[in-house]
Amino acid sequence: MSVDLIRFIIFAAVIGGVIIAALTIKSFRPYLRKAPLVAFLLGISSGFPLTLLIATMTFWLARVGIDTATIGFAVALGIPYTLKFLWAPLIDKLPLPFLTKTFGQRRGWLFLVQGLLFVSIWQLGASNPQPGNMGVFAVWALITAFLSATQDIVIDAYRIEILDEEEFAHGTATNQFGYRTGNLIAGAGTIYFASNEGLGLGWATAYGLTAFCIIPAIVGAFIIGPGKFVDRYAEASGLKPREWLRETVVNPFREFLTRHGAFIILGFVLVYKVGDAMGQAMLGPMIVDLGFSDTDYITANKIWGYAALIVGSAIGAPFILWLGMGRALLISGLLMMLSNTMFMILAAMGDNYWMMVAAICTENVTSGIGLTVFTTYLSGLSSIAYTATQFALLSSFAGVGRTFMAGPAGIIAEKFGWFGFWGFTVAAAIPGMILLWVLWSKGYVVQGIRQTDAVEHEAPKEPVGPFRILGFVLVIAGLIGLLLSQPLELSANLTWAAAGVLLLGGLLAWKGQPAAPTKI
Question: What is the phi-psi region of residue 86: left when phi exceeds 0, alpha when psi lies from -120 to 50, beta otherwise?
Answer without folding.
Answer: alpha
